[in-house]
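The protein record filed below.
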Amino acid sequence: MTRHPLEGRSPQTTRRQALQLGVLAAAAGGGLVGACGRERERPAPTQQTDLSRPFRPVRLPLHADVPAIAGGLAAEKGGLLKVLNYPEYLAPDVIKKFADEHGVKVEITTFTTQDEAIAKLRNTGATFDIYFPTPDILGRVVAGKLLQPLNPTYLTNLRNAWPALRDPFYDLGSQYTVPYNSYTTGIGYRADRVTTLPAVAYDILWNSAYRGKTYVLDDDREVLAMAMLRAGLVDLNTEDPNVLKAAGASVGGLIDAVNVKVGITAYQALGEGQATVHQCWSGDIINAQYYLPEGGSTDVLGFWYPSNLSGVVGTDTIAIPRSAQKPVLAHVFLNHLLSNEAALENFAFTGYQPALSIVTPEKMVADEFVTENLKSAIVTPDHYDKGIQLLQLSPAGEALWEDQWAKFKAGTL
């Protein structure tokens, strides 16, 4: 399973939070309260519950004993609204505003991997109202009856999402999920040290000029997929042992070439200068702005993603567990996060952008979420349409990926 961009991360710094709130205020222009892409043609859906693909969309099964809530009900008041989420993946002000408006307290339980989250959902007696799954595990949690179907009458703000994510291939009809954040995987670099990128920009990771200052993500799927993209391959969910062996040999060459390091804190390594080149998620380079020295210019940061948009792209989702004790209020909270106002406020805190049509590269530069040189880090519906997602593998396929990764990691220790 691919690593989520927030897995294993420590809480954000107070300085970063303060700076991001400043960005939010500039973007709001007094309009925020403090506290479109194209449809894609696709084949008929299947009823399978795993291994969904854009070319093989899935309509997840409904279970007679796990019904959706009725429409027209009043939201529950008082007590706790229980959220299961990655650490630091919701803006405190967004939570507080919702809690104050609805007279509840919001309790966040965190997880660092989706396997850990699923274990918490299965824990006897545990109840959660909201959960943030990734698309690759939806088949598992729906088959295990851990989620309840959504009632779309409560989700009027779903219209703000990218068209492709209102009816996504991994959950046709948005029966169980609504979209949350989006990201791409590219190359972050220090523009004050790297003056030109090679024709195949992935090659920069093998450039001995940056020896000791080159990092890749601590993620088997991301790193091996990057090697495949470098070789001109686009099936990044392959289970072909020969392809995987070649990818493993390619990334193994990074050890001698640049004494490569692995990490998941590109935002800090690039911002503070420990790294010159770092494979990273788009949200990392946006967050790196807040790790520069006080008064430092963001001109020292750069982000590359393929100009034809044929790189790795990903999105997160939000769902309501079967165990929810406040299912109506949970729907209202999902709808709240899909509002343009709350989504932009959330973006200012997390650095990971909502998959909503209001977010465009031009607007994010104008509103000072990013500077012009980092505009390429803003994800658009075209990125999603043309990009390649790292999706669920079979157990045998996953073992092949993990075997190549283990060999690579053994050489980097």
Summary: The chain has a mean pLDDT of 88. The radius of gyration is 21 Å. Residues 183-312+388-412 form a domain with the D-Maltodextrin-Binding Protein; domain 2 fold (CATH 3.40.190.10). The first helix runs from residue 14 to 28.
